[in-house]
Amino acid sequence: WGLLLLAAALGATAAARCPAPCVCDNLRAHVLCLNGSLMAIPDTIPELTKKLDLRGNSFMVIPAGAFLATPYLTHLDLQRCKVERLEEGAFRGLGRLVYLNLASNGIALLYQESLDGLSSLQQLILEGNRIEEIQPGAFGHLGSLTVLDLRANALVYLPDMVFQGLQVLRWLRLSHNALHVLGSEAFAALPALRRLSLDHNELQALPGEALARLDGATRLDLGHNPITYVAEEALAMASLRHLFLDHASLQDVAPDAFARSPQLRVLDLRENQLQGLPPLAGAGGLARVSLDGNPLLCSCLLRPFHKWLARARVQAEGACAAPPALRGRSLDSLKPPEMRCGRFRPPPSPTTLPEQPRAAGSRQCPRGCVCSPDFHHGSCENRDLREIPRDFPGDTRLLDLRQNPFRTVPPDAFPGLKELVSLHLQSCSIRVLHPGALRGLESLVYLYLSDNHLSTLVAAAFEGAPQLAYLDLDHNTFTRVPAGAFRLLPNLISLHLQHNAIGELAEGDLAGARGLRWLYLAGNAIRHIAPAALAATKMLEKLQLEGNHLSEVPTAALRGLPALSELKLSRNPIKHMGHSVFLPVASSLQHLYLDNMGLEQISPHAFTGLGPKIRSLYLESNKMSNIPDMSNFTGLEILNLQDVPFHCDCQLLPLHRWINKLNLRVGATCGSPAEARGLKVKLSTTFLTCRDWGRGEAGETNSNKTKAASKSSKKKRSGKSPARGFSKSRA
Predict the structure, then answer these.
(1) Residue limits of the LRRCT domain (predicted)?
(2) Among 257, 256, 211, 255, CA closest to 237
């Protein structure tokens, strides 16, 4: 009885402390605060909470010690919370947490202490952020982690020992990034890894040296990479059983390419450019080879491979593309006499890939700085240095010089650092980046110059750094995009110019940035975008313009952007939205942000051309009373209609019906008429008087609809909680 009384007392305390606008399930110790307008982690969450779901809020920053008041948490969901930064120690005190979901946020960088305190964590989901760089040591405190999901980020480079500390990790997911450089020791600290997903990246060659560290891995996904050739003994993975190299650009495979992977059972080579294969020496355990979608030339040149298939009892999937007499014939139906020599040329032999340069020898570390030979790091952070120090070891790959008052970066400021990949110069009071400042940094991929005083740049400043892919110029003093400054950066993928004072985008501002994929311009003062301002960026995928002064959708500027999948226009003073404003990007657009704009009217044809490709649409916190027909948005995964004052009369009946068919939480609420104010559109009783009520209602009879709507109306008036075992701070 004493234990029951204690449990009841704790339940009552938890119920009393349930923060608005959350729902607390005291019996299961769950708290849900979904799709709200929370700007900070609530500090009144019951202490004994085990599962906390905060999806769809607006936290921006997770501060140090944010969850110290809830030490019993085992599951924490922070998806779609607009998080951009994890402060060091953000999760300290969560020693029991086993599941953390941070997907679909705006996190760009993981520092060494960002995930400190999560000693029991088993699953970490970071999918769909904009992580450009991971510092070695970021996962050093996650000794229990078994699944790490980093899909759909902006990673180009993985440094050595980046996953150190993940002793029991079994699945590492790195798909849908832009990886093209892997340190030879990038996977060296993963003894328990069984599955590695590297598909949909920019790898141009099989990263054999890095993969050789994975003795226990059984599945490797490398599909959708521009790999053209698999060289001799390219893959030395002792336990590998499943290898996926589908949808790449393979033209040839060496006979002994897989000789050092003796356990290989399944080889997927679908949708490549292979005209044939040689007998695969050393692959004695192979059971199946998939060659569907290759232009196979079934001439006498394919006979050795065909004989090997029969001798080794390997099942082959694929069909002949030539000669015409055999076109469409499956490989297993062919007989050797049919495979004759004609006038067909053999597959071209690829050029031998150049050897990777050896690391330069180490040198003395500058006084006052710290150099790590294991991680190839150098750091002089916050040392009050007036000049950029020299004489770092020649194999340094990450150099952290943040928070020093350098004021200027002179020519040839970083001699002897040919292997440097990442350079941090944030908060250094820099006003001038001189021509030749980066000369000699031929491997530089990341350059961080945020929180400085730069107002202009010249192209010559980037001379000698042709591999630069990520340039961060946030929080400077630019009043316009430095025209022509990027013409020496053919590999520039991501450009950050957020929180400057840029007033317009003019034609020629982005000249030379032909490979740009992600352009971040939030928090400026942009009023106008010239029709040809984005003409040079035909590969652009993400355009973020939130928090500017645009008064209309820049439709003309969107023409010629066939790959644009994400457009953010949130927090711009766009009051009216006309016909076909997104038509130029309708065939590619997947994520559209139109929230917090004060939007008053949307044309019935504003979304013309948009349809099943749209996956997320944000329209919350606007002023319109109706929205266009979206019945063809069949691919929606997220729809936010919170804080929109819908007028719930018969004209809104189609929206009411459509919302009822969606298996989504949309948050649509009636703003008028008076008797419906505050009711969910989905359950408002005002639609019962409509002439068409009852037609097309799916899944429920009219009487059931009436009961559900009446019940909702009664709950709204009485303030009763919606479900047994839940306490809610407001009805």
Answers:
(1) 294-342, 645-691
(2) 211
